[in-house]
Every structure is written in C-alpha cells, then in structure tokens.
Design a protein that fits this description.
By secondary structure, this protein is α+β, with helices and mostly antiparallel strands. It has one domain. 46% of the residues lie in helices and 13% in strands. It has a 3-stranded antiparallel sheet with strand order 1-3-2. Strand 2 and strand 3 form a beta hairpin. The longest helix has 14 residues. The model has no long low-confidence stretch (mean pLDDT 84). Bound molecules: zinc ion. Zinc ion binds next to helix 4.
C-alpha cells in the first residue's frame, strides 16, 4: 500500500509538527523517539499519527530532531 507510506512520510508533516522536551500548551502528548528512546511532547495531530501507526502495526514513526539529523547524514552517505 503505497498510500500508507506517504501518509507517514516524515518530510510532509515536519513543517506543522510541534515537538518539545517538556509539555507546553501545544504539545501535551507524550511520545518517545524510535532511535534514542527519549521522551518528547508533541501536538495532538502528530500524536494521532504515531498512535495510528502503532495500531496498524507500523514501527514507531517518531524520530527526534537530533536522531533525524543523524539519519539524514546516513541517507546522504548511502547515495
Ligand atoms: Zn532521538
């Protein structure tokens, strides 16, 4: 199902994704980074995407900015 992959494409949601290390008015939902396991707080839309992915049996789609930076470097070096 190609459509599902697109739905969870991090690049598409990045611009509207709210993430913080502590809960704020906009980020009250707890998620953990798939790579480092640190807890972060996200907005409701992002949380819905993460929990939906879990329910559907996908891997945790949430990766924090620090780990995503490393992922990007890996992705570039593989090309
Ligand atoms: Zn991380």
């Amino acid at each position: 199902m190609v459509r599902l992959r697109e739905e969870f494409d991090a690049d598409r949601t990045e611009s509207i994704m709210q993430v913080s290390e502590y809960p704020t008015e906009k980020t009250q939902f707890e998620v953990f980074c798939d790579m480092c396991g640190e807890v972060f707080f996200v907005d409701e839309i992002t949380f819905e995407k993460v929990s939906h992915a879990f329910r559907e049996g996908f891997d945790n789609p949430f990766v924090c900015d620090g780990c995503r930076g490393e992922l990007d470097e890996l992705a570039y070096s593989e090309r």
